[in-house]
Amino acid sequence: MQFSFTEEQEEFRGILRRFLEDKSPTTEVRRLMETDEGYDPEVWRQICQNLGLTAVHIPEEYGGQGFGFVELGIVVEEMGRALLCAPYFASTVLAATAILNAGTEEQKQTLLPDIASGKTIATLAFAEDDGRTGSDGVAMTAAASGDGFTLDGHKSFVLDGHTAGLIVVLARTPGTAGDEGLSLFAVKGDAPGLDRSLLQTLDPTRKQARLAFKNVEAQLIGDEGTAAAPMAKTLDQATACLANEMVGGAERLRESALEYSQLRVQFGRAIGSFQAIKHRSADMLLEVEMAKSAAYYATAAADDDAENLIPAVSLAKAAAADAYTQAAITTVQMHGGIGFTWDNDTHLWFKRAKSSEVFLGTANEHRERLIENWDAMERSAA
Amino acid sequence: MSELTEASVRAEVRAWLEANFDPDLGLVEWRNKLIDGGWAAPTWPVEWFGKGYSDPLGRVVDEEFDRIGAVTVCRVGIRNLAAATLLAHGTDLQREKFLRRILTGEDTWCQLFSEPGSGSDMAGATTRADLKGNKWVVNGQKVWTTSAHHAQYGLLLARTDWDEVKHKGLSFFILDIEQAGVDVQPLRQMNGHASFNQVFMTDAEISPEFMVGAPGEGWKIATTTLMHERRGADSLRRYAEAKERPGRIYAEEKVEIDHQLEPYKWYPQRGGRADLLIERARETGKIEDPAIRQEIAKVLTMLKTAEWTALRARAAQDQGRPQGPEGSLGKLAASNVARAAARVHTEIAGADAMLTGEDGPMEGVIAEVLISVPAISIAGGTDEIQRNIIAERVLKMPKETRVDTDRPFRDVPRNTVS
Ligand SMILES: Cc1cc2nc3c(=O)[nH]c(=O)nc-3n(C[C@H](O)[C@H](O)[C@H](O)COP(=O)(O)OP(=O)(O)OC[C@H]3O[C@@H](n4cnc5c(N)ncnc54)[C@H](O)[C@@H]3O)c2cc1C
Ligand SMILES: Cc1cc2nc3c(=O)[nH]c(=O)nc-3n(C[C@H](O)[C@H](O)[C@H](O)COP(=O)(O)OP(=O)(O)OC[C@H]3O[C@@H](n4cnc5c(N)ncnc54)[C@H](O)[C@@H]3O)c2cc1C
Q: Which tens digit of pLDDT belongs to each residue from B354-392?
């Protein structure tokens, strides 16, 4: 297990940070969050073409750069820090990973290069109206028709589902239940019979859509009825990435609270000189650093395809949820009245923290999963 | 008066309401009738529209109003704090001019204490009032002023002496908000509402008779106002609820609540809505989840203990005993309840916690809880300040070393940012 970043990785992070500070200042975040599309096409083009970020963890044979989840984790951590508004998590983290895990060689050859180059924005549609991430939550059916399939049902909480050009959809053979009969399908964003509506989200910087399918034509990805395992793996890998994104946001909040406490004067002294405020800052550092360690461990475990991937990911997600939410609460509190205003930037991260707390499973659910899979953690060293 | 009992008061108010309450009266007309009958504020002194009742007897009167759904006076907002402050420190002229219209709801009040540079450190106010000829002339800026955009009057804390130490150079005024020298600009909050404001004062004028107390007594008087505010922050506080019933008076009350009392629409949400936890858990089936059950039970324990602590404080007060520590804990307890409830609401909602407005659980109420609770641990004195007060005043622990109270205010270090 790797417990530090290489020099190249640190350099990569530095480049990213500077790029994102430049392209995603909060003025841009605020502008984009008010739009339906939710991203800037020109910045997206630079992300894809100049920095090649959409290709990071895609193998070279499919047009990617051939790095791993550790590098992908660095990217999303920096994006979480900058609160970048872009379909990156949907396209690269979720959809590309699902295709990598489930697709046939030929499908990877056809689908991945365009996602890697950014020409196609893809997303992954798995949860339905009840928001559950497990197989039991999948009711959408896929019926064989001609040489393809037709999908009926609905999906919800689909990241960037209203704008994506390619939607990877989880559905089941009629009459099956649980892990049996699950398959992944590729559907074009403008397919006839597909009705997409933007959801009203608490966090306006991450767009989500509800998709209704009526007799929608779809292409099978991988073998029919075998999607449960690759899908579960995809969600674990994506959850590891999400934990990294979250600690990036948490650290940014922690820093902004610290900075404010050094500038703000009450009772003739900087509020940062009050022990109550110092202790809050110290506790925040403790929680954020712990959560970072867990997030980094989880992406490293994803790269190693480690035996303890499941408990490592769940531990990281639960720790990130607690640390990010607490950092958000503390940062508002340390700002006082101004922290509760719309004009102060804290609420942008506060809302992302709240939303990430439940995205891909709540903290309680992940803690439960951690206990269920603790044996795997015990069996792996460090 | 000595033969007053719960039963006699109950009988008297019941008879009076039966004879007088008419849902087709106008709201103000009815409230004036209430005032003249002494039933608008029965706990106030007899000279000032009341009956001099004890708090417990006042609650008997409330119960009778509730029983038949009679509309009472407007009890929400800073107007209550204004009334309490004027009853304690005002002149007869001030009470005569303002108290009746506070009770009828015709005037809305706001609290002009916090400034960009002084919030927790309220005594650090730099808004100035200078006596020029026969007027006080006010210049400066206030902020986070709830309801200033609807208000006619403001309780103003301003500095009248810069050579005194900070707490002694302040005076307390009643400011006419609707004059030319006062500019009110709403501020949007992180929950999308805009119930507080920035208030700019440029040569705003106040006649000397609208100073409350004497010059230099501003801090002492503001403390009375704050004490009432913090007490109101505990879990016994009731918010207005529009009654969907026929009768002109109900329609007019609804308008009052929708318009003037706009902030109070989200105020229940900032308290965390622990009252909705069980309902939400049932709705979502999470009531079967042992982890959630434990968490709800913890929040309800906090809620109930806070409620009973407040009742214990009230009972002691009713018996005329000195306030014990339980009276200072309500505000801090309310913050803890709110945060804990919001956390459990998030777990219960699961993925739905990502949705807001009509797409969100309970038509957006839950989302509003999640993004409103941060207010409760800031407004009316932050949690940190509450803890300092509990430690230093209740527990009598040594005070923090102060660097701002030993010299003329003009020499005290102040903000570089605000
Ligand atoms: C099991 C054990 C093993 C130890 N082994 C060693 C050893 O090998 N060598 C050695 O030299 N010492 C050792 N110590 C002593 C230890 O370092 C001290 O007990 C510790 O530093 C606290 O000092 P104190 O006991 O004087 O308590 P105090 O310093 O008097 O502290 C009392 C309380 O006040 C709080 N407090 C003090 N100052 C502040 C402040 N500025 N802000 C906020 N709170 C404050 C403390 O947190 C504590 O709660 C050991 C102690 C224990 C319990
Ligand atoms: C919803 C809402 C409504 C409000 N309505 C009104 C109103 O109608 N009228 C009005 O006058 N004001 C109103 N306020 C203002 C409120 O009273 C202040 O925001 C509050 O007192 C904090 O002051 P501040 O915002 O300047 O923060 P600061 O005082 O700058 O506090 C910043 C941080 O420093 C901490 N801090 C400050 N001093 C100390 C200390 N000595 N020890 C430890 N920590 C410390 C605080 O706890 C906080 O975490 C409202 C605020 C809100 C959020």
A: 999 999 999 999 999 999 999 999 998 999 999 999 999
Residue A274: closest CA among B383, B400, B117: B400
Tell whether B87 and B223 lie within a shared domain: yes
> Is B190 in contact with A342 (Cβ distance < 8 A)?
yes
Q: Identify whether B241 is part of a domain.
A: no
Cα-flanking dihedrals φ and ψ of residue A68, to 5°? Answer: -120, -160
Would you mind telling me the total number of residues written for chain A in this entry?
382
Residue from A33, A44, A159 nearest A93 by CA = A159
| Collapsed DSSP state (helix, strand, coil) of residue B187 | strand
Q: Is B1 part of any domain?
A: no
Q: Are residues B33 and B97 in the same domain?
A: no
The contacts of residue B301 (CB under 8 Å, 6+ apart) are: none
Name the domain count of chain B: 3
How distant is the Cα of A34 from the closest Cα of chain B, in angstroms? 13
A208 with A260: CB under 8 angstroms? no
R_g of chain B, CA atoms, integer Å: 23
Same domain, B110 and B201: yes
Residues B206 and B133 in one domain: yes
Query: First CA to last CA across chain A, in angstroms?
Result: 8
Of A274, A256, A279, residue with least CA distance to A332: A256
CB A308 within 8 A of CB A283: no
User: Which DSSP category does A50 fall into?
Assistant: I
Distance CA A353, CA B122 (A): 32
Domain that holds residue B113: 80-232
Residues of B in contact with A364 (CB under 8 A): 289, 291-292, 347
Domain shared by B94 and B161, yes or no: yes
Domains and CATH numbers, chain A: 7-120 (1.10.540.10), 123-225 (2.40.110.10), 229-381 (1.20.140.10)
Q: Could you give the 3-state DSSP secondary structure of residue A365?
A: helix
The CA–CA distances, whole Å, from A252 to A17, A49, A348 equal 12, 27, 11
State the DSSP H helix or E strand holding residue B245, giving kind and residue range, or none if neither.
none
Asked whether residue B244 carries a pLDDT value surpassing 80, the answer given is no
Q: CA-CA distance, A76 to B251, in Å (whole number)?
A: 53
First to last CA, chain B: 54
ipTM: 0.96
Structure token digits, residue A170: 């989880």
> Within a domain: residue B57?
yes
Furthest C-alpha separation in chain B:
73
CB contact burial B282-296 (16+ within 10 A = b; e otherwise): eebebbebeebeebb
Indicate which CATH number applies to the domain containing B376.
1.20.140.10
CB A79 within 8 A of CB A245: yes
Same domain, B163 and B274: no
Instruction: For residue A9, give Cα distances in angstroms to A6, A20, A65, A72, B207.
Output: 5, 16, 14, 11, 69
Number of H helices, E strands in chain B: 13, 8
Mutate to test the interface with A, among B141, B142, B190, B392 (most CBs of A within 10 A): B190
pLDDT-derived band at B235, boundaries 50, 70, 90 = very low
Among the bound ligands, the one closest to the CA of A271: 2
| Residues with a CB atom less than 6 Å from ligand 2 | A 264, 266-267, 271, 274, 276-277, 333-334, 336-337, 340; B 110-111, 113-114, 119-120, 144-146, 196, 375, 378-382, 384-385, 388
pTM of the model: 0.95
**Digit-coded pLDDT (tens) for B62-83:** 999 999 999 998 877 788 899 9
Report yes or no on B406 lying in a domain: no
Phi and psi torsions of B29, nearest 5°: -60, -45
Contact B292 A364 (CB under 8 A): yes
**To 10 degrees, what angle do helices B330-349 and B290-318 make?**
160
The pair of three-digit structure tokens given for residue A40, joined into one six-digit string: 């800037």
- A362 to B346: CB separation less than 8 angstroms, yes or no: yes
Q: Is A153 helix (H, G, I), strand (E, B) or coil?
A: strand
